[in-house]
Amino acid sequence: MIYLDNAATTFPKAPGTLERSVELYRELGVSPGRGNHDLAMRASDAVDEVRTKVAAFFGAPDPARVAFGANATDALNTVLLGLVRPGDHVVTTRLDHNSVLRPLHHLADSGAIIWDAAGFDERGLVSPDAIDAMLRPNTRLVVMTHASNVIGSVQPVAEIARRCAARGVPVVLDAAQSAGQVPIDLAAMGVSALAFTGHKSLYGPSGIGGLVVMPGLEVATTRFGGTGMDSASLAHTPTYPLRLEAGTLNLLGVLGLGLGLDFVVGEGVEAIHAREAALLTRLRDGLALVDGVTVYRADGDLADRVAVLACNVAGVHPQDVGAILDGDFDIAVRVGVHCAPLVHRDLGTIDRGAVRFSLGAFTTEADVDAAIAAMRAIAGI
Question: What's the maximum distance between 2 C-alpha atoms anywhere in the chain?
Answer without folding.
Answer: 70
